[in-house]
């Protein structure tokens, strides 16, 4: 049953077609090879692997194409039958998981490269911390890290724990999705620093390396590669793996800042990831959705009334702008919000000056939910005002009651059930918000990790599949309840407006 | 206020509806009935006088006071005109009870009770409009307009839903209430009986022009 759900969820994402729709970096063929090898690899390898593949082809090895993504997303895809030949993981655990599922064979796993964990700051930062101790002494620094199920996120936690700094720093850590996402936040100056791999730090000119972590304080960062059991061309796949792990490959990896990996894959158990707390996620979803609805109430009433009752220049434009988040991909909306409200924007700076920070905070999650839910809110409120007979307002005026009081005594009470219905609809939408939230507010446990984000985090964890059901159940029940409430309130407004039987 | 000035003067046009009205009621009579074929613009005239037809262009004067002069940009909003407008489909506030509808403009409880008794709707005071009959609704709408202390009553087919007996009774009550308070009354009706019962003068609206037909009673 759990597997069926996982498959269903994967079907919902375009990624199920992984190799086809994923971020492919095909290596152009000079000699047409009907079947290039398909390699699924951790996203931190996306700069170096095409170079290695070029060298491999020049050495007569044939064509290779790649699909790069977070290891935690690639491994489940492989289990579900992605037609790949080679998998290169960013850590032991996911490779072990595949080995336990008999998708790869332990003896066939080799380490192709290794990496180091470093602390980076934005290139413009003055006086970055020189070492871990200096980091601990800066209580206001906000630190970005990859998610706790992403290897880099786990390694970073381990390194900080080993240094005894975790308790001090935990509250300031912002979890991104992948290492690349973390790097982008640092590069944009949304955070004061971040924990990334050395190779990422070298590849991004907008960040500066502050210090490297002591390699004894976190599990070795190795990239184990393996031939996938169902590959139709195991010999070619094996040869490519050996090429990567061999002298030529090592030279190319080394040039890109990678270390040479330890020769053997050790079947060790590294730290188990912490799982998202479902109770906290449900509570947070409620809080965020309620706050979004409350914050949006007056604007929604104002905009809904304007659109229902007034004809003014720019009315069409206003309507279009307000409804746009309905059709713009939420991820894009989130990105635009981050550009407008982020730490580097004028508005973001002004907000920071009064102590309000939007990215990676509860406020950010609320704003993301509000902006994405606002179109439904406005449409419902506008509809609620439109069905109120404007002659009732006119009549109220002739009875000596000016428009503002007429609005409060006639229009608003008559539209109220419809407005409440709109609020419920926006609430339901806010509960399910994901795309804009993850970009603007990250995936911070207890701060911005709502139901949708918790489900996403759990999907990426080999051990989290059971806990998903609690959240899926809560999500479905809450959403359906909100929609039923919407229906009931809409009916109620229709009854309220009936001023004579049968009308 | 100049008592000798014409009661009402209106010279207005509504380009969109192809309505053009030239109206002058040169009397200080307490009650005037306007009759005319349907589509002559009787209801529109009342809407223009009440100030709720903002698309109308032209001038409107009440006893020498300018309510609208489009060329000079004068427009007195409806909430300052003091008109007791009872539109054709009564329009009670559906979320308010009968007594809340009656007291909408701010009358005292005693005045509300008295009006409800006078119009025989006192047994309905806590009911919502949707539970009223057509005749009950018309009486509540009339009472609500009267309780707003209007300077003029504009009644649009106000008795159409009342049976003959009740109609005579209500017409007499409303007429005497208006007379007692010196509220001039303009009644629009296609019903000869209403006009006869209530009005001192009968005017005919046809082709956008209002002409006095005959002296009443």
Summarize the structure.
The complex is a heterodimer of chains A (503) and B (217). Chain A is α/β, with parallel strands linked by helices and 503 residues long. Chain A has 22 helices and 10 strands.
Distance between the termini of chain A: 51 Å
The structural domain count of chain A equals 3
Count of individual helical segments of chain A: 22
General shape of chain A: elongated
Low-confidence stretches of chain A are: 1-32, 267-272
CATH level-two architecture of chain B:
3-Layer(aba) Sandwich
Describe the sheet with the most strands of chain B: 6 strands, mixed
Major beta sheet of chain A, specifics? 5 strands, mixed
Q: State the CATH architecture of the largest domain in chain A.
A: Orthogonal Bundle
Number of strands of chain A: 10
What's the rounded overall pLDDT mean of chain A? 83
CATH class of chain B: Alpha Beta
Distance between the termini of chain B: 28 Å
Radius of gyration of chain B, whole Å: 17 Å
Shape of chain B: globular
Low-confidence stretches of chain B: none
The percent range for strand residues of chain A is 5-15%
What does this protein look like?
The complex is a heterodimer of chains A (503) and B (217). By secondary structure, chain A is of the alpha/beta class. Chain A folds into three domains: 2-114 and 221-255, Periplasmic binding protein-like II (D-Maltodextrin-Binding Protein, domain 2); 117-212, 3-Layer(aba) Sandwich (D-Maltodextrin-Binding Protein, domain 2), CATH 3.40.190.10; 278-497, MetI-like (MetI-like fold, Orthogonal Bundle). Helix content of chain A is 53%, strand content 11%. Chain A contains 22 helices and ten strands. Chain A has a five-stranded mixed sheet with strand order 2-1-3-10-4. A five-stranded mixed sheet of chain A has the order 7-6-8-5-9, with helices on both faces. In chain A, strand 1 (37-42), helix 3 and strand 2 (64-69) form a beta-alpha-beta unit. In chain A, helix 13 crosses helix 21, helix 17 (362-386) crosses helix 19 (403-431) and helix 18 (390-398) runs antiparallel to helix 19 (403-431). The longest helix of chain A is centred in the middle third of the chain and has 32 residues, at 278-309. Chain A is elongated and about 90 Å long. With 217 residues, chain B is an alpha/beta fold. Chain B has a single domain, classed as 3-Layer(aba) Sandwich (Rossmann fold). Helix content of chain B is 30%, strand content 27%. Chain B contains seven helices and eleven strands. Chain B has helices at residues 42-50, 78-81, 98-102, 109-118, 134-147, 164-180, 192-198; strands at residues 8-14, 19-25, 31-35, 57-62, 65-69, 74-75, 83-86, 152-156, 185-188, 201-206, 209-215. In chain B, the strands form two sheets. A six-stranded mixed sheet of chain B has the order 7-8-9-3-10-11, sandwiched between helices. Chain B has a five-stranded antiparallel sheet with strand order 2-1-4-5-6, covered by helices on one side. The longest helix of chain B has 17 residues, at 164-180. Chains A and B meet through helix 18 and helix 19 of A and helix 2, strand 7 and helix 5 of B.
């Amino acid at each position: 049953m759990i597997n069926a759900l996982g498959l269903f969820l994967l079907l919902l994402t375009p990624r199920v077609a992984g190799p086809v729709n994923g971020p492919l970096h095909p290596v152009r063929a000079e000699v047409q090879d009907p079947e290039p090898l398909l390699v699924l690899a951790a996203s931190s390898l996306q700069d170096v692997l095409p170079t290695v593949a070029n060298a491999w082809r020049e050495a007569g090895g044939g064509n290779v194409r790649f699909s790069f993504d977070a290891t935690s997303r690639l491994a489940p895809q492989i289990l579900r039958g992605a037609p790949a030949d080679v998998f290169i993981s960013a850590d032991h655990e996911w490779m072990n998981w595949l080995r336990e599922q008999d998708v790869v064979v332990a003896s066939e796993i080799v380490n192709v490269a290794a990496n180091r964990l470093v602390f980076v700051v934005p290139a413009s930062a003055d006086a970055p911390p020189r070492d871990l101790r200096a980091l601990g002494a800066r209580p206001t620094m906000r630190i970005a890290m990859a998610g706790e199920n992403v290897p880099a996120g786990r390694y970073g936690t381990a390194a900080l724990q080993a240094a005894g700094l975790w308790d001090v720093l935990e509250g300031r850590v912002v979890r991104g999705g992948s290492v690349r996402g973390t790097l982008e936040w640092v590069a944009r100056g949304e955070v004061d620093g971040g924990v990334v791999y050395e190779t990422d730090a070298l590849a991004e000119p907008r960040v500066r390396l502050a210090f490297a972590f002591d390699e004894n304080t976190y599990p070795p960062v190795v990239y184990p590669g393996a031939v996938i059991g169902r590959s139709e061309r195991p010999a070619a796949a094996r040869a490519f793996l050996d090429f990567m792990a061999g002298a030529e490959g090592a030279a190319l990896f080394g040039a890109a800042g990678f270390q040479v990996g330890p020769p053997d894959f050790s079947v060790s158990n590294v730290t188990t990831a912490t799982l998202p707390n479902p109770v906290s996620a449900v509570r947070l979803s409620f809080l965020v959705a309620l706050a979004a609805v409350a914050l949006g109430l007056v604007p929604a009433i104002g905009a809904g009334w304007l659109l229902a009752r007034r004809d003014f220049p720019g009315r069409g434009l206003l309507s279009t702008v307000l409804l746009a988040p309905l059709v713009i991909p939420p991820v894009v909306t989130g990105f635009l919000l981050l550009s407008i409200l982020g730490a580097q924007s004028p508005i973001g700076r002004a907000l920071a000056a009064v102590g309000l920070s939007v990215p990676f905070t509860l406020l950010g999650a609320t704003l993301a939910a509000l902006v994405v839910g606002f179109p439904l809110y406005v449409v419902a409120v506008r509809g609620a005002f439109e069905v109120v007979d404007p002659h009732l307002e006119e009549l109220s005026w002739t009875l000596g009651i000016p428009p503002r009081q007429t609005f409060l005594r006639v229009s608003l009470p008559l539209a109220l059930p419809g407005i409440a219905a709109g609020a419920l609809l926006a609430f339901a939408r806010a509960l399910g918000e994901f795309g804009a939230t993850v970009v603007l507010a990250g995936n911070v446990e207890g701060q911005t990790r709502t139901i949708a984000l918790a489900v996403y985090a759990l999907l990426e964890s080999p051990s989290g599949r059971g806990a998903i059901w609690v959240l899926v159940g809560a999500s479905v029940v809450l959403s359906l309840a909100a929609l039923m409430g919407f229906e009931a309130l809409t009916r109620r407004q229709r009854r309220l407006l009936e001023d004579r039987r049968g009308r | 206020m100049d008592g000798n000035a014409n009661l009402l003067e209106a010279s207005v046009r509504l380009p969109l509806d192809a309505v053009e009205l030239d109206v002058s009621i040169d009397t200080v009579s307490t009650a005037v009935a306007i009759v005319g074929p349907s589509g002559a613009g009787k209801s529109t005239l009342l809407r223009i006088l009440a100030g709720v037809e903002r698309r109308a262009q032209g001038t409107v004067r009440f006893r020498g006071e300018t309510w609208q002069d489009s060329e000079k940009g004068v427009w007195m909003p409806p909430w300052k005109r003091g008109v007791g407008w009872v539109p054709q489909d009564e329009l009670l506030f559906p979320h308010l009870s009968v007594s809340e509808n009656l007291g909408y403009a701010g009358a005292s409880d005693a005045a509300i009770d008295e009006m409800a008794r006078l119009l025989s709707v006192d047994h309905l005071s806590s009911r919502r409009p949707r539970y009223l009959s057509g005749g009950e609704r018309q009486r509540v709408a009339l009472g609500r307009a009267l309780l707003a202390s209007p300077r003029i009553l504009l009644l649009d087919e106000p008795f159409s839903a009342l049976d003959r007996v009740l109609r005579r009774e209500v017409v007499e009550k409303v007429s005497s209430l208006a007379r007692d308070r010196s509220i001039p009354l303009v009644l629009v009706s296609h019903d000869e009986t209403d006009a006869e019962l209530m009005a001192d003068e009968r005017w005919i609206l046809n082709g956008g022009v209002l002409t006095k037909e005959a002296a009443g009673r």
